[in-house]
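Reopening closed ticket. The problem is back. First fold of the pair:
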Amino acid sequence: MKIPTDAPKKIFLQHDPEKTGEPFDEAAEVTWCRDRINETDIAYVRSDVRSAASRNAVLEDVIEALEARAKDLDALARRGDEGAAYEVDWTRSLYPLIRALLAKLGEDK
């Protein structure tokens, strides 16, 4: 199958940002856009355009998504949700690992 030359290299899946706790599979409506609209949008990159640079961009998007998730969890933790407080710490523990992977990918250029 030939990919159209004007197909976007990256899109963002979007669902209702008010329902961040709702399982994605159960989301009533999911749309996409070329641009990030909400902090909860999920980035997708076409597999045929991935290179070391685009892998880095994807990992930066992962960090951005984790930071948005940590922000949401912080709000829950402030309301007394102990599980959310634990998940915030766990989510933030991933940052150094991802940054180390980014550094390693940078060496592979």
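Second fold of the pair, where the issue appears:
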Amino acid sequence: MCTGYLEQLLVLSLETLFLFLQKGIDFSMTALFVLIVVNQIMQSDRYYPFLIGGSSALFWLIAVGPKYFLLPSLACTVILLMLIFLKEI
């Protein structure tokens, strides 16, 4: 009987600890993503892949909304980049 209360106390304390630790993860992962993208843009000699990806994501975000935009955006970006890079070869 006492162990049930201790287990519940342990679970609740761990749950609150993990919820507290996760609050800063969203911001830090977004900052890391922005840092990686900016670093890749600065090192790249071609900027149109970034422009194609960004404009495709923005277009599909407006067209279908935030819930369903990822798959069409990635498909559109991949198809356009394949067409451009196949012409260069």
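Update: turned out to be a display glitch only; the data is intact. The chain has a mean pLDDT of 84. The chain has four helices and no strands. Please close again.
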